[in-house]
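Hello,

Our lab assistant flagged a job as stuck in the queue for most of the afternoon. It eventually completed. Since we weren't sure the result was trustworthy after the delay, we are filing this so someone can double-check. Below is the sequence as submitted and the structure that was eventually returned. Let us know if re-running is recommended.
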Amino acid sequence: MKESKKDVVRFAIAAQLIVSIALGFYNIFLGVAGVVIFVVLIIYYTKNTSIDEIKIDKAIDEIYSDLDKINQERMYEMPIAMSIVDNEGIIYWYNQAFGKAFKKEKEGLFKKSIIEELEFNLSDAVKADEFTFHYEERDYGVVTNAFSDKVHSFELLHFFDITEQSKQRQLYRKNSPLFCYIVIDNYDDIIEQIPSHKRSAILGKVDLKLNEWAKQLGSVIIEYESDRYLMIFERGKICALQKENFKILDEIREIENDEKVPITLSIGIGISESILGIIESQELSHSALDIALARGGDQAVVRQDEKMSFYGGKTEATEKRTKVKARVKAYGLKELIKESDHVLLMGHQNPDMDCLGSAVGLLGACKSLGKEGKIVIREINYSIKSLFDYLLENEAYQDAFITPKEAESYATKNTLLIILDTQTVNYLEMPSLVDQIPKIVVIDHHRRSGKAIKETLLSYTEAYASSTCELVTELLQYFDEKNQLNVIEANALMAGICMDTKMFTLKTGVRTFEAASYLKRKGADTLISKILLQDDLNTYTAKSDAVKNAKIYFDNIAISTFENNTDYGKVIAAQAADELLNIKGIVASFIILKNDEGLAISARSMGEVNVQVILETLGGGGHLAIAGAQFPGEKNLETGKELLLTAIKKYKKENGS
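-- returned structure --
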């Protein structure tokens, strides 16, 4: 209504101006008078209009002021804790709930730093989509809103109390079910070696102990195969199991029988920080069991997403009497080689005699099947130089070796990559080949680690074997191809076995000698192996110095430190560790080497001390009697020794020795 009146006044003033101009044509005085009246009207209208607008604006300001006052009062009284801070975390305003929540209402928080007073990470809160804050047994979800006054920037922080939700989430996680897979490792041996009238009693004892263990945990256990169990228990029980180092492993191992057959278990449990469905959860646990079995059994593996924790593994892997698995794997490998265009053979970085010998043995198998095979080697180190020179004496092997760069031209969809003497991608001569070639085979005798190659067409990993050369020799026996192994290749395989067994004195089983017997029939000579393993004078002198520096700890463990930046420093360390075992009273030896790369530890044992378990706590691994670890970038030998001594003390404490 008010706007329509203004429109009428504007129309009347405009009409007056038009009339004044028209009168000016007839009488100049009347025209001038009309214009003066028009000017007066304009001034009057403008003045009154400005006053009205000022009144309106003032009224609006008063309304907004009232609203701001109401909002400020409501914000101050809101049950949600709120505060305004600048970019430095200085608090410029906070409401009643904020002061009450953080118990600072008496001394006040105005103009104080929220970062210092509450230990609040402001930068993370601003960046994160979801940010939680813990303060004095309460949990808060924090939401931030940025604003500015054209000069300064501020953050409005909302603190939502989510303590109850957090408690419910923790309770759910604690009570969520975990799948635990259990396998009797040597069930076949029990069936074969223990008479039928005693067998049931032994297996009954195993079943009874597992059910008693399940009852103590308040869990459900199901025997779904004659040698396999599935146990389901609450996640909150896992900490107790880890703390006691899965003592069920020891209890089962201590079951006595007249035939002295050691009974061991493999256990796999999967845990995830994410919320998984039943299928994903059981798959994670089953993969943990696979790792426990691949590492030789007699242990529990707890897989927390990609992180692995190992418990047990106190005994050496039991040698399998049956060779059915070797025959099946040999058939599969033979077919894969036949179907491939090229075969690349690759081992670990700084390859040794076992690594190269096994590759040479399979190279002969590829030739017998009419397929081209190439061995990928970055450089020739001291460990394999004698075998490499021995091979190059024959023209047939002069084109058998390629560099990692040359290997890229062979990387096609139908190329077969055979990885030998390792299962870890990072240790390969050329790790990127694993991503470039889809068809992968792994043959190894080391215990599996958490970083093992996952996508393989065929995997033959047996921790009981003395060497990879032993496994390859077993496979070749089932190829049934004429001239698949000549004398040179047989000698290369024999040299690898001799190196890893220290001329058949360590880690040898019945199958080790059976493999050696097969190689002897193919023309292998242990004298040539002995020559290939000989050291030069400088190496022998350096090895003697490393042995001389050794000191005895815990009455029967020898530890030596030495520095060597040559290419054969690691070989010297390994050989020195072997030599220390020849000293009376020494049951385990550790050599700590310092070189340009950092520190490396070589460990050996007579079997009484499990050096593999000790060095696994330092990121290493291996076997019960042979293990190693590395500390890239570390240059202090004393630091390395202290870490090693701490690991040994932990091992002795856990094993009550």
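-- support follow-up --
The delay was a queue issue, not a problem with the job. The result is valid. The chain has a mean pLDDT of 83. The first helix runs from residue 2 to 26.
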